[in-house]
Design brief:
Blueprint (H helix, E strand, L loop, with lengths): L11 E3 L5 E3 L3 H21 L4 H21 L6 H6 L7 H16 L16 H25 L6 H20 L1
Antiparallel strand pairs: 1-2
């Protein structure tokens, strides 16, 4: 099967369960930003962070794939998504990010002023700062989708907030 289908030539794209929406919709904006975030995390990974950060980034990327599935499902299909047992973000995923952040803070990582991404000369750290900014845009996009009346689970909304905080911390230590 070719990646080129032509199905999107008129400005529509496919979601899960055979649904189609405009490529310019708030939902597609959110999905695109999560995809962009995942790609930025890939750049940070490829730049050679510490082994610990590499493992954390790998886990985050795995979660983002499930999160994209959640966002690619319209509200009327959420139950069907759950029944199929597809990956999703849950409260424990938010807690896991908080725990990682607190663990790093306990090692002495603290906010001491605005970061200057790239100042340390580390591509991995600069990549995590770049990913952090995309996580913030994704958060705003998900919030806009939610505020438009299309419910986005609280855990998904919180996940981006905690993720951007963790990425700020990792950019200081990787």
């Amino acid at each position: 099967m070719s990646i080129i289908t032509g199905r999107g030539d008129e400005g529509q794209t496919d979601l899960l369960f055979g649904k189609r929406i405009a490529k310019t919709s708030l939902r597609m904006e959110a999905l695109g930003l999560v995809d962009e975030l995942n790609a930025a995390l890939g750049l940070a990974r490829a730049a050679g962070p510490t082994d610990e950060s590499l493992a954390i980034l790998d886990g985050i990327q795995e979660k983002l794939i499930g999160l994209m599935g959640q966002l690619a499902c319209l509200p009327e299909d959420v139950e069907r998504y759950r029944e199929k047992g597809y990956a999703a973000i849950h409260a424990e995923d938010v807690t896991a990010l908080e725990t990682l952040a607190k663990d790093h803070e306990a090692r002495g990582v603290r906010f001491t002023g605005w970061a200057r991404p790239g100042a340390e000369g580390s591509l991995a750290r600069a990549g995590m700062d770049f990913a952090r900014t995309i996580a913030r845009r994704a958060e705003r996009s998900v919030l806009a989708l939610h505020e438009s009346g299309e419910e986005v689970p609280r855990e998904v909304r919180l996940y981006f907030n905690r993720l951007s905080d963790l990425l700020w911390i990792l950019a200081r230590v990787s």
